[in-house]
Amino acid sequence: MMRRHTNLDMDALRTLVYGVDLGSFSQAALKLSRSPSAISTQLKKLEAQVGTELLRKSGRGLVLTDAGESFLVYARRLLELNDEAVAAVRGSKMEGAVRLGVQEDFGESLLPQVLGAFARSHPRVNIQVRITRNADLLAGVNKGELDLALAWGETRTAYVESLATLPVRWFGPREPAQVLRHPLPLAVFESPCLFRTLATACLDAVGIPWKVTFTSPSLAGLWAALSAGLGVTPRTALGVPQGVRPLDHADLPDLPRIALSLHRSEATASPAVARLTELVKQTVDDVIEQRAI
Which residues form the HTH lysR-type domain (predicted)? Predict the structure, then answer.
């Protein structure tokens, strides 16, 4: 007799992943527009399907069991394949080109996921990517040279959507004692730079003397300077490499949060631009949630 296969409930899988990523199944209920009782029913159904307990109570919340930890890896893969398959079928006939601009911060943390998923789902669409600094990205959108750009700050373009506001932190070498001195050595981008302006304004406000000891046109140059102990720099936690550490407990002023926005050159997005917009937004959400930024 042929063995009956168990078909996992994709909605229940999504509930499990969202609940874990958000740190709360109450938050998952809000995001998925479901009642707490519906969420509970889904999770119980999922446990019945796999035949083991995936979650256990811890205080007022739920945490993964050992089996749940193992199952979560497969749940993420199944959801990714499910969403990719649906997008591929719906977008298989989509053609044209789309031009995307991003900051270097997202080169490793976001870009490979976005480009890979988009290329697999829409093989007939030619995607062009420009990795450059904020001013160039915004200029590219305003001139119609870029269809979409992911950029820092509050600068407004004609069609902009705020995605998040992220904390800015001080970063330095693994051995910070060599750079925590007066005047404070700064490794920063060449002007104009939002992060540079934030840092110097905060240092001036508390009377900490500073000196620019290293400038670079690229983020890779800044990380290399920090690893070599040439200074400190203000940045978000996105894309921080090994050899660099946050200086959260150093005697340095707190830095304000910075906005992250998605800019579009046209009021009405083409199907390709609309799909790429969805992918960028979802990937940004996933990266922020996974890294608890």
Answer: 8-65
